[in-house]
Specification:
There is one protein chain. The protein is an alpha/beta fold. It has a single domain, classed as TIM Barrel (Alpha-Beta Barrel), CATH 3.20.20.370. It has seven helices and nine strands; from the N terminus they run βαβαβαβαβββαβαβα. The strands form two sheets. Strands 1, 2, 3, 6, 8 and 9 form a six-stranded mixed sheet that branches. A three-stranded parallel sheet has the order 4-5-7, with helices on both faces. β2, α2 and β3 form a beta-alpha-beta unit. α1 packs parallel to α6. It is globular. The termini are far apart. The structure holds zinc ion. The site of zinc ion (ZN) has 5 residues, from loops.
Amino acid sequence: MYRRAFIQKTFILGGLASGLSSFTPIKKSHIITLSFDDGFKKSFYRIAEIFEQFNLRACLNVIASGHLSSYKPPTHYMELETGNFDDWNLLKKRGHEIMPHSWDHSDLTHMPLEKAKEDITRCLDYFAEHLEGYDAAKAVYNFAYNASNPELEQYVLGKVVAVRSGGPTINPYPRTTSKFRLGCQSFGPENADPWLKQQISRFLAGSGGWLILNLHGLDEEGWGPVSSACLKDTLSQLSDLKHVEVLPAGEVIARVLKNDPTK
Ligand SMILES: [Zn+2]
């Protein structure tokens, strides 16, 4: 069910340079998003605390029904206490980004298309109703298992501004565009500390762009966890680099849109 690396053929709905390339909304050459999935209560509060120690905002993606009695964790890695929307609203008020990560963590590519669309709609409707300040025009939908296809992505992009799914981790920095398809990869099931460090080192050695790494829980929690110590050490190192900025995915999109002269 899980794959070590999720690499799918990238299809691009937007994100291509449009002739306005002299416009640079973000000044840093290297943008890094650590995109945490699955909504484990203990880990997500801890992740938020660690990001706050560096005056950063965490990128937290949660399962819409994860706190409901109907929710059945799809793997044993996910049999942990999940937060509810009181938790998510609290963390959002503290400045962190809360984004949708499916209705119930089903693999939508294994469902009939119409059923998958219903799942997506149910997830996004639940967010609209329960997450304070939810704005579809700024939302990033994060596919469970990073599993999607062009039909599903197209459908989601009719409802939110961006999707995150499998693909090369280094994304070109988005210029003027209206919809965004963000690529990422994850690593597991064992501890992902060495992988995280290696991905970041490789990115920093290159010319730049937007690195998106998909992580899950902290320490012993979830599939491919990173240790608290590694996360803290990584953010500490990155905070010292003048050409690097650590941002949640929706914040990057918001900056692009805010500065987009075509809007
Ligand atoms: Zn997940």
